[in-house]
Each structure stands twice: as C-alpha cells, then as structure tokens.
Amino acid sequence: VDEELNELRREFLVEAEEKVREMQAALDGDPTPESLSRLAYLAHQLKGSGGSYGYQRISTDAAEVEKAAEALTEGKPADGLEARMQLHVVNLRTEIERSAKELGVAPAP
Amino acid sequence: MPDPKSFTVAVVDDDAAIRRLVRLFLKREHYETFECTTGDEAKAMLAELPWDLAILDRRLPDADGAVLCHELKANPSFRTRYIIMLTGEDEQEDKVEGLELGADDYITKPFQYPELLARIRAGKRIVDLQKELLETNKRLELLSITDGLTKLYNHRYLQDELARAFDESQRYQRPLSFCLMDIDFFKKINDTYGHAIGDEVLKTVSGLFRESIRSTDLAARYGGEEFAAMMPETELGDAITFAEKIRTMIEETVIETQAGPVRATISIGVSSVPHSRIHSAKELIVAADKALYRAKRNGRNQVQAEKRRDVNRTTRPAA
To answer: What percent of chain A has pLDDT over 70?
Structure first.
C-alpha cells in the first residue's frame, strides 16, 4: 500500500467533493455565461486529475460535463444537455463518495 | 551554483491536485522541482530560477501554454531546455499545435505516472546530452586558444585579440600597449640542463607572468621562449612600469627545477599607441620587436620602449 499516495488521494477526493458541490450549485441556479464557464473549468480540472489519481470514471464523467457546459456556452440547443450534465454530476458525486469510503475519508457533514 | 548533476523540473499547472501528484512522483525520483500556478508566474520564475525541464499545462487560466512554450523556446538561453506539454486526451489539435510551437513532447491528462516518469527520463537523456555537448564545446574552445605547456593564450588568439583591441583603441581614441618579452640565453639553459628543465623554466616564468598581469590584460606565449602582453587602456609609461616590475621579479626568482635551482632573466620591448607611425596591430608588434632587439643588443635583462622621437610629427623637416 502506497500510504503517501493514498494521503494525496484523500486530499484530492475532499477537494473534488467541494468542486462537485459547487458544480451542483451552478446547476441548481439559473445558468449564466459566468456560471457555465466556471462549471466547465471545474469539470476540466477533474477530467485531468481524476484518472491521474487512478479514478478513470471521474475523468470520464467530468469530460461529459465539460463538453455539455461548453456546448451550452456556445449557445447550442439545450435539448437534454442540462439533464445529461446533471446525470454526470450525480455520477461524479457517487464515484467520489465511494472512493472516499474505500480510503477511509470521513464523509463531509 | 546549482549542483551540475541535479536535474530541476518546473511544474506549471493551475490545478493544485495535479501539482501535488507530480511533486510526489518527482520527489521519489530525486528530481529537484518548483511549481508555478499561472502563466505570469511561470514567466517570472522560469527566468529567475535554474531549470532543465518544464511540464507545462496547455490550458492555464491566464495564458495558452503553447504560446508560453513558444516564447520560452524563442529565448536563446532556454534553447537546450526540454518542455513537455500537458494536454487533454481528446485535445488532438492541442498536441499538434503544442509540438509545432516548440514543445519537445506531450503527455495527455489524465496521465499514468509510469508514462510521466518515462517521458521525463527521455527528456533528461536529451538535456544531459546537450549539457555534455556544451561542456565539450567550451573545453575545446578553450583548448584551441591555449598553449599546452604554459596554459597562456596561444599566438593565434593573441593576434585575433590584438587586432580587435587595436581597432577599438583607434575608434575610441584610447591607449593600447604591447610588450614582447624573451628569456635571455634560453638556448644555453636548454643546452646545459636539457629540454625538460627548459620546459620547467618556461612554466615558472609564464606562471609569474600570468599572475602579475591585470585581469583586463592578456598574456600569451608568442613563440618558443617569447611571451607577449596586451594591455588595453594603458599608456606607454605604465606599460614600461609593468615591464620593469616583471623583469625584476624574474631576475629575483630562483627557479626550482629537477636539476636544482636555475636563474633566468628576460628582456622586454614595449610599444604603445597613440603613436604617429603605428597604424596597425602588426606595426605595434614590429615596434615592440625592434625595442626588444635593442634590449638584447644593449646587454639583455632590461626593458626598452619603441623610439618616440617623431611623436606628433607628421612631416619631416627639410634636410
């Protein structure tokens, strides 16, 4: 067991959870160009870091969120995009929670 | 100065999670690292701190990593550095563009750390080779202008430097002096003690010579037992004073050799511009050579300067 790496993973998961919470808040409100671009930025970060920490599914879901957020920013028809985004954000939360539990990270209050 | 064996990796990424992960793996491989979080920070730190390889995120909050990469590679002092671009897996255009703009390699995010380390190692091999090449070039360059026995500059280098210094002195109307010195009765030393001892005398004399000149002067081995000093910004009077100093020093030195103590003296000819009849580096050397000849003819172990009867006179009086 690579304890040093696991410690970084825990830190990553805690931060990732915060990011996903911020993404959810952006989805819950009325989407503005600013909130969409922030959403895309957070998703882009998770896309790059998730798999690097060994969580490929985080990268995959985050990539979908980024793609959808960018499409909405470009003014493409919102048809189902928001719902898809919501689905992947939920996936992200589930994946992060599951991984955190595996590593023994105390769940956020 | 940084340890020449150490290898410094700069990590430029706005995502703290990526920086922490890369830092851990680099630390395990014993690389030195530092981190930058924005393009501006990277520009400042990469210009300030020593680094060998940079891992550069393509998408920075305030900059396009590829443009930054292009700027870094355009800087001549960074030409031997190695840049690995970090791009998204699905960003095919980013990869091509990054390489076009001067990146040496790329890694897609998310990355697998064995790949990350392998690519850094590949980069290190190239950087190490380039460093070695630069070192070798420097050594060869020094070798090509140095006299092997005395470690003074060689004749050819002196000629080049004197020509350059002469032009400069003419252009800016600054004084320039030149000394030509010759060990007296050196043939006798060689004949009496053998060439190995003769070489020891040459080494000791050239060592004293090198230590006594100023850092702005240039000391060279001119020929067999002949040495030369080029002294920019030095007038004739000061050059004669210097020549007298070194002559006295050699005269007073007992040279310890394998064959026991040997004594030597030197004769010196000094020339200097501004001078109404010296118009080239070659004429400056000829004038010093003539003065040296007079020093020899007058009994050796002395300093003679070029004759200045005609200073500031451009026409001869009617006979």
So the answer is: 96
CB proximity A23 to B under 8 Å: no
Q: Which residues pair with B8 in a beta bridge?
A: B32
Instruction: Provide the mean pLDDT of chain A.
Output: 90
Q: Could you give the CA distance from residue B101 to residue B174 in angstroms, rounded to a whole number? A: 47
Question: Is A15 in contact with B16 (Cβ distance < 8 A)?
Answer: yes
User: B22-44 burial, b for 16+ CB within 10 Å, e for fewer?
Assistant: bbebbeeeebbbbbbbebebbbe
B84 contact partners, CB below 8 Å, separation of at least 6? B53, B54, B55, B56, B103, B104, B105, B106, B107, B119, B120, B123
Closest partner residue to B88 (CB to CB) among A5, A47, A56 is A47
pLDDT band at B317 (very low <50, low <70, confident <90, very high): very low
Q: Does B27 touch chain A (CB under 8 A)?
A: no
Q: What is the ipTM of this complex?
A: 0.89
What distance in Å separates residue B17's CA from the closest CA in chain A? Answer: 6
pLDDT in tens, B163-182: 999 999 999 999 999 999 99
Q: Which residues of A are less than 8 Å from B88 in CB distance?
A: 44, 47-48
Angle at B297 between CA B293 and CA B299, to 5 degrees: 125
Residues of chain B positioned with their CB less than 8 A from the CB of A53: 17, 21, 110
CB contact under 8 A, A5 and B88: no
Query: Which whole number is the average pLDDT over B3-31?
Result: 90
